[in-house]
Amino acid sequence: MRLGAALLAAGAFAAGALTTATTAAADQNGSAVAVLGNVLHGQSVDIPHEGRGTAGTVALKEDGQSLEVYCIDLYHGTSSGVKYQETGWDQSVLSNNPDRGKIQWILEHSYPVLSASALAQEAGVNGLTQDEAAAATQIAIWHFSDKTDATSKDKTTTAVASWLEQNATNVSEPAPSLALSPASVAGQSGDKLGPITVTTNAKSVDVKLTAPSGVQLVDGNGQAVTNAGNNDKLYVKVPAGADAGTAQLTASTTTNLPVGRAFKALKGNSQTMILAGTAPVQVSASASASWAPKGPVPAANATEDCKQGGVDVVVSNGGDQPWTAQVNGQSVTVAPGASETVLVPVKEGDTYSITVTGPNDFSKTFTGALKCQPTGGGGTPSASPTPSVSATATSPASGPATPSPSASGGLAETGASSTTPVIAGVGAALVVIGGGVVLFLRKQRGAHAG
């Protein structure tokens, strides 16, 4: 008998301004390391093919702050120090799941979005505890995420899980707290470079451009801007004849982290999590622009493509002469004002590093791990990698954490701290912190000891 800890370390930032040599996370994603805390609320349940385990929520701690998540990838394991990134559903284990919208409904109508007493009233049961509420919610989520029906000996837990499963309907994926897209743009001097589109659930975000003198951040009408809203389009206006250069756009605001955002490991095949609690957090995003008076002006962006099993690398040319890109050794010529997409195949669960090079020492590397498919019911949690922790990260305690479903000092019934810190990064996309651990899986393998 052994204990395999399912750990989440989360947060998200996209990295990589347009310079001659940058590293970025594909799909506007990034990573941040955090430390696993104790189980906050949960119960022991029977998990098909795995024996007894604990279903519920666990704190992810970063600088003493916590948020909660549930597991959406039951049969994979994970380990201390794994880096996680926020990601869209289409770039996660939910990519091909027809019931993913039902998982979102469950999150919005269960614990910790609803208190245990409020959930009890909705489900028509009496005396629901936080432990029962968390276990019931996780059981219902696994029903749709992993097509697995864990069972509890607690009749109240079972009743609430059944109510959630029976009433779940498909609802839309939550938008990022804040994102800028695309991550990089390019053009000629004298042009308005862009558009760069703002996506946010906040009413307004502050925007700032760091650029050479005379270069401005403007809206579609050419007016200088210092703030923007959801779906606003921004441009970098460069004076005619300006020497070759770069600028960086930064957007920031305080907003609630959306419940239902997925988090996956940057490396290896560690299990994927989904955010359960929300709180006002500071978020920021960055994008970059480059220009030149003549010649090719390269740019590159990347998005994970779960449908085709790889990473779509888009190379573009904002100049007046063609340029030839090398995408992981594959040559592609980009005409002036055009863009080309190169699919780089990546095996499920593999870590990738994709480098794009071009003229004038242009070089950009995209890194991440492709995680699009959950392991089917009956699978064995994979052995989890233990990547080295960056020097800026807090080192997690060695060994698996110990479940303590009724630990004191847990999150409030709203499910989150209101002072969760933000880990910022260079690049284009969102910066958010969230996470936790959902499953401590005690597996029984007969007389085998692991």
UniProtKB/TrEMBL annotation:
<feature type="domain" description="Bacterial phospholipase C C-terminal">
    <location>
        <begin position="299"/>
        <end position="368"/>
    </location>
</feature>
<dbReference type="InterPro" id="IPR023849">
    <property type="entry name" value="TQXA_dom"/>
</dbReference>
<protein>
    <submittedName>
        <fullName>Cys-Gln thioester bond-forming surface protein</fullName>
    </submittedName>
</protein>
<dbReference type="Pfam" id="PF08341">
    <property type="entry name" value="TED"/>
</dbReference>
<dbReference type="InterPro" id="IPR013552">
    <property type="entry name" value="Thioester_dom"/>
</dbReference>
<keyword id="KW-0732">Signal</keyword>
<keyword id="KW-0812">Transmembrane</keyword>
<keyword id="KW-1133">Transmembrane helix</keyword>
<feature type="transmembrane region" description="Helical">
    <location>
        <begin position="422"/>
        <end position="441"/>
    </location>
</feature>
<feature type="domain" description="Thioester">
    <location>
        <begin position="69"/>
        <end position="169"/>
    </location>
</feature>
<feature type="compositionally biased region" description="Low complexity">
    <location>
        <begin position="381"/>
        <end position="410"/>
    </location>
</feature>
<feature type="signal peptide">
    <location>
        <begin position="1"/>
        <end position="26"/>
    </location>
</feature>
<dbReference type="Pfam" id="PF05506">
    <property type="entry name" value="PLipase_C_C"/>
</dbReference>
<keyword id="KW-0472">Membrane</keyword>
<dbReference type="InterPro" id="IPR008475">
    <property type="entry name" value="PLipase_C_C"/>
</dbReference>
<feature type="region of interest" description="Disordered">
    <location>
        <begin position="373"/>
        <end position="417"/>
    </location>
</feature>
